[in-house]
Structure to design on (377 residues):
């Protein structure tokens, strides 16, 4: 089946009681058992819920994986993945990873004996030099947040395989509509479904998909034992959002291309980061790996005061954290999404005080361009 057909139908069924087309919200904590040890496959909602199961099966189908697991947030999904490993294990992580991921790794998991090396995974020489005998996993974010650096997933998967390590890709920015890491050799793919997958800024969630069936039981055990599950209402909202993922992403991206072109070369802007720009160094990788360029744009201005002035002047773009909703958002990464990253690390990665990130929504492009023009002053 094609992507949009799977997005609408995979893992879902008409309700057997009423024939309802949409999977019902099974808002229950427990299930009647017909006898001791006899039930319909459902015992307790932390362990299994029909609405959550529909979402998990749907995302596994879209990512071409064997098993999917839905969690209460993207960070909970990453934490569940890391629970497969043990003290003393070493991990290679994309240097410009999301601030919340960095915080989890550095301020929580390091206390349990995990070791992390942050490298520019877009360069294979950096990646190869970072491996140790105890390296168990490469964790890649591509495109990165907010600098939009791409990593060649197929190339990294090959290196990881040679070194006996697993590969996980954070696919939040690209979505399975544009990028399917498991088909490129990754072992796991993770999403903050809060973003484009849900797409309506009304649910927080995360999904982890494994390529190999052998991970189903270990990850289900972790999910059930730790309990950071996605509730039925949020599962239903996310399923609803997925149905329009393809059409939304097409509109997000067409708007983003026009805005990036408007910003590029604008004398009121110092620099623009967007993979679709003609002079972007990784444009060809974006085309070959994603087939498009996404809808996140970062640009820099002189300093924090100038950025603060611009941020105060937006009227259509909303100053807020997060991204990927139908409405356009603007944020200041150094103060907002990446505040947990030490200043010296932010500086090295290019997350300077004058950096502004746009999450381009699906509003009328004329209104978005006028808003940016007004904000720039």
């Amino acid at each position: 089946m094609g992507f949009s057909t799977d997005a609408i139908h995979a893992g879902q069924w008409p309700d057997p009681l009423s024939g309802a087309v949409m999977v019902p919200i099974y808002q229950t904590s427990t299930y009647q058992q017909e006898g001791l040890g006899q039930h319909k496959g459902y015992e307790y909602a932390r362990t299994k819920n029909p609405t959550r199961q529909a979402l998990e099966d749907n995302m596994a189908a879209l990512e071409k994986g064997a098993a999917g697991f839905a969690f209460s947030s993207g960070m909970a999904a990453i934490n569940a993945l890391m629970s497969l490993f043990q003290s003393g294990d070493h991990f290679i992580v994309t240097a410009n990873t999301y601030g919340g991921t960095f915080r989890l790794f550095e301020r929580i998991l390091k206390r349990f004996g995990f070791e992390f090396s942050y490298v520019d995974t877009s360069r294979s020489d950096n990646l190869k030099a970072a491996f140790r005998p105890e390296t168990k996993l490469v964790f890649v974010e591509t495109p990165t947040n907010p600098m939009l650096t791409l990593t060649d997933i197929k190339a990294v998967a090959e290196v990881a395989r040679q070194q006996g390590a697993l590969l996980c890709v954070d696919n939040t920015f690209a979505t399975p509509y544009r990028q399917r890491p498991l088909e490129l050799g990754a072992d796991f793919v993770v999403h903050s479904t809060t973003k484009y997958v849900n797409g309506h800024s009304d649910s927080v969630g995360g999904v982890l998909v494994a390529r190999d069936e052998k991970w189903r039981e270990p990850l289900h055990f972790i999910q059930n034992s730790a309990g950071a599950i996605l509730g039925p209402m949020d599962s239903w909202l996310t399923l609803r959002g997925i149905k329009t993922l393809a059409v939304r992403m097409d509109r997000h991206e067409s708007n983003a291309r026009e805005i990036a072109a408007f910003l590029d070369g604008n004398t009121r802007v110092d620099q623009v980061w967007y993979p679709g720009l003609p002079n972007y160094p990784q444009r060809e990788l974006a085309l070959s790996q994603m087939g498009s360029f996404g809808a996140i744009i970062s640009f820099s201005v002189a300093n924090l005061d100038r950025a603060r002035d611009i941020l105060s002047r937006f009227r259509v773009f909303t100053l807020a954290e997060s991204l990927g909703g139908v409405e356009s958002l603007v944020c200041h990464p150094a103060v907002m999404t990446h505040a947990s990253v030490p200043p010296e690390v932010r500086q090295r990665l290019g997350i300077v005080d004058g950096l502004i990130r746009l999450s381009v929504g699906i509003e009328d492009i004329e209104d978005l361009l006028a808003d940016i023009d007004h904000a720039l002053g």
In short: The two ends are 48 Å apart (CA to CA). The CA atoms of residues 334 and 343 lie 8 Å apart. The chain has 14 helices and twelve strands.
